[in-house]
Recover the amino acids of this structure.
């Protein structure tokens, strides 16, 4: 069961800015770091954003993250066809003493 | 370069125990810097965290699976194992392992390529 809520899909034309939301609660996003993972078709997830807004080495700067209260967002500035993938948010949940994931958002470049 | 590789039976019968191994290279699982986590993803569905282990033996499990899950380490082989008992068709999924950088709060990285487990008689 997913504790974090994301829109099922998001899309944009190449070059556009696309934003994905992730809604949680006080026990997860509200009190812990948010992470974002990118899953390209047929592959394993890959760390995209950590600690709300930091990018691992090699992740393009067109990907950015933010958090406000019990929600977080991932933005893709200048959408490219290779960004077509499923995106998941995640956070530690103090009430569950475990990690929770978002429901996932499929991003499509029109 | 840190790499993880899941392995195990691709087919498990209902009511039996699913057993998978995550072979780690490029870093010692005995490192005090990391946890090691397991996940699963049913076809066409989202990611679910199963649980994790620290080298001390300390574990955390998803409450929804806790009664059926055991995660352990074999330091001599640099492997992390997952056992899930009393499986049903609902446990059919791709199973992943990943390094859990919880202590530095740096997320799950890297991930293994995943292994598909089908529960069927």
């Amino acid at each position: 069961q997913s504790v974090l809520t994301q829109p099922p899909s998001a899309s944009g034309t190449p070059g556009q800015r696309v934003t994905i939301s992730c809604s949680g609660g006080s026990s997860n996003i509200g009190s812990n770091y948010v992470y974002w993972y990118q899953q390209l078709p047929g592959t394993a997830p890959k760390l995209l954003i950590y600690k709300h807004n930091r990018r691992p080495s090699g992740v393009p700067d067109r990907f950015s993250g933010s958090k406000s209260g019990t929600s977080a967002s991932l933005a893709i500035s200048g959408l490219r066809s290779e960004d077509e993938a499923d995106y998941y948010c995640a956070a530690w949940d103090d009430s569950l003493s475990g990690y929770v994931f978002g429901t996932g958002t499929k991003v499509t470049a029109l | 370069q840190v790499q993880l590789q899941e392995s195990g039976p691709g087919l498990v019968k209902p009511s039996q125990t699913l057993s998978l191994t995550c072979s780690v290279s490029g870093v010692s699982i005995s490192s005090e810097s990391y946890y090691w986590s397991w996940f699963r993803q049913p076809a066409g569905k989202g990611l679910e965290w199963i649980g994790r282990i620290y080298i001390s033996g300390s574990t955390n499990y998803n409450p929804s699976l806790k009664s059926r899950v055991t995660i352990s380490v074999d330091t001599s082989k640099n492997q992390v194992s997952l056992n899930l008992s009393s499986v049903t068709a609902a446990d059919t999924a791709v199973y992943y392992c990943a390094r859990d950088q919880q202590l530095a709060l740096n997320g799950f990285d890297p991930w293994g390529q995943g292994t598909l487990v089908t529960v069927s008689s």
About this structure: Chain B has a mean pLDDT of 96. The CA atoms of residues 40 and 95 of chain B lie 4 Å apart. Chain B touches chain A at residues 37, 46-49, 51, 60-64, 96, 98, 102, 105-114 (CB under 8 Å).
